[in-house]
Each structure stands twice: as structure tokens, then as C-alpha cells.
Design brief:
By secondary structure, the protein is an alpha+beta fold. It is built from 10 helices and 11 strands. Helix content is about 40%, strand content about 25%.
């Protein structure tokens, strides 16, 4: 690592890094320095086991609980096992105190069901594809049925609407695509590589979603007394978050299928106070008119 990178990581000056490196070298630590390349630690040198501060271990334990209750599946199980290893290296006295605090911290199950972890089995292969920049051959089941063959270049993984998703460049469509892991029937890691800087990062991709045609941000305002009854189905329509405002509860969605969202909203009748997207609001009104005409003939 270069001195400038170490300085940025630890929030100090490069001068401080040079001083600390010299101190480590004087203590007999086998650090190798090469101009223009940076510092490296000899592989034969073994560091002592990592010792966590109590607050660090507590933060990790809360993260593990969060993963277990909010993400579930393989990730939740791995997080729990990792937390057991963290507790194993904490001093016995601190461990007992820490366990008391952990037991006193509750993360109640969310209103939506904890994911089953379906599709998690593909995670190791996809992680390897991401780190080695290798093309993956997919057999993928579309939402409306039918299986397609895709060769994709993995960009990143994200978790939303109860599922893990692979964001990747699809060589068939010549564009970025979102693949739900539980819809992957088969995945094969190929020997073909692609350039590391060939695609935008996952954060840049997600930040640009609102500008795409396929996924639009929508805010729906519900009556406050009804909002608490809006169940887990909202996560199937791209629910992001909610906030209590003076005029009602504002729920934000990332909408991929406007008609499905509008039909779902019909069941809440006059409890839907406002839809901030004009096209979506027009479609919602058209569905209400169709329903009214249908009911009048029965």
C-alpha cells in the first residue's frame, strides 16, 4: 500500500505514515518499501490474533443480528458463525459483559417475512466472478416464465424486495440487467475475463436507476390510520421506506411495473391520498373508472 493511501485511510498526514513505518521497522517488523509501489509486509511474518474492543465486538454482534433477521438465508447463518468467532477471541471477563449487552439488544422481526435464502447457493460463484472479473453463463427464468441463456459480466450484488439480485452487463441485450438469484436455474463460471474498469461500480449503477425507463421512484401517500395495515406485499412492488408527514404516511417505491402497483393500490380505496407520479396517477384513475363501469353492469 502507498503512503498516501494509508494516510487517507487513517486520516493522518503522509509524514505521520513515514514516521510510523520507521518505528515499525525499528521494532523488527519486516516491512518492504519500494518507491512508486508502496509498502508490503513479508508473508512469513505472523500477526497475533485480532483483539476486539468491547464496543467493536458489540457493533459486530448487532450487525450479525441484523443480517439474521433482515436478510436471513446463508448470509444470516454466516454472520452468526462469524460472530461466534469474534466472541471467542474476546477476553473472558469482557465476553460475559458483552453477552449480557447482546442479550439486551433486540431487533424485532420486520413486518415483511424474513427471506428464506433461496438462491443463496449462487453467492460463492458470483463472488468469485466479481473478484476475478470472469464472465458467467446463466440459465435464467424470466418473471413471466420461460428460460433464457445469458452470458453476463457481473457488476455487483444487492439485496432489496426480499431477494438478492445480481447486477450485470448482459452480452445478449448489450445493456445492464438485474437478475434475481432465486430465478437462476444454473450458473457456470467461464474462463473469459473482462476489464476491471469496463463497467461502472454497483453504487454508480444504483444511483442512476431513477434515470432509467425501467425503474421509477414513486411516492404514495396513505392515510395514517391505514398505513399500518399495508402489509408485506409492498415489498413486491419495490418498497424502499416510509415517513410520517403532516398529510399522512409517505411510502417510497422503486416501481418497475406501474400497472401491478396501481392494481395493488386499488384495495386501499380512499386511503390512498396521493400518487406523486402523474402517469401512474392517470393509470390508477383509469383502473378505477374501469372498475366502476364493470361494477355498474353487475
Amino acid at each position: 500500500m502507498r503512503a498516501i493511501d494509508l494516510a487517507e485511510r487513517f486520516g493522518v498526514s503522509e509524514r505521520s505514515i513515514y514516521r510510523d513505518i520507521r518505528a515499525l521497522e525499528s521494532a523488527g517488523i519486516p516491512i518492504i518499501g519500494e518507491p512508486g509501489v508502496g509498502y508490503a509486509l513479508d508473508r512469513s511474518y505472523k500477526l497475533p490474533p485480532v483483539n476486539f474492543q468491547a464496543d467493536e465486538a458489540l457493533a459486530l454482534s448487532i450487525a450479525a443480528k441484523f443480517a439474521s433477521t433482515r436478510i436471513g438465508g446463508r448470509i444470516g447463518e454466516d454472520a452468526t458463525r462469524a460472530m461466534d468467532k469474534v466472541l471467542a477471541v474476546v477476553a473472558p471477563t469482557d465476553r460475559r459483559r458483552l453477552q449480557d449487552v447482546i442479550d439486551a439488544v433486540a431487533l424485532p422481526s420486520p413486518s415483511h417475512p424474513v427471506p428464506t435464502g433461496e438462491g443463496d447457493d449462487w453467492m460463492p460463484l458470483l463472488q468469485q466472478a466479481l473478484t476475478e472479473r470472469r464472465v458467467v453463463d446463466l440459465q435464467y427464468t424470466a418473471p413471466r416464465g420461460g428460460v433464457s441463456e445469458r452470458a453476463v459480466e457481473a457488476v455487483g450484488l444487492c439485496h432489496y424486495s426480499l431477494h438478492w439480485h445480481l447486477i450485470a452487463w448482459c452480452r445478449l441485450r448489450n445493456d445492464y440487467r438485474d437478475f434475481r438469484l432465486d430465478r437462476i436455474r444454473n450458473a457456470t463460471l467461464t474462463a473469459t475475463h473482462f476489464a476491471r474498469d469496463q463497467h461502472a461500480g454497483i453504487d454508480d449503477y444504483l444511483a442512476g436507476l431513477s434515470a432509467t425507463e425501467n425503474l421509477n421512484p414513486v411516492t404514495v401517500v396513505f392515510k395514517s390510520e391505514v398505513a399500518s395495515f399495508v402489509g408485506s406485499d409492498r415489498y413486491r412492488h419495490g418498497f424502499l421506506d416510509e415517513s410520517q408527514e403532516a398529510d399522512g404516511v409517505h411510502m417510497r417505491f422503486l416501481c418497475a411495473q406501474p400497472e401491478f402497483l396501481c392494481r395493488w393500490l386499488l384495495q386501499y380505496t380512499d386511503a390512498v391520498l396521493h400518487i406523486d407520479d402523474s402517469e401512474l396517477r392517470t393509470l390508477w384513475c383509469e383502473l378505477i373508472a374501469d372498475l366502476t363501469r364493470h361494477a355498474s353492469t353487475r
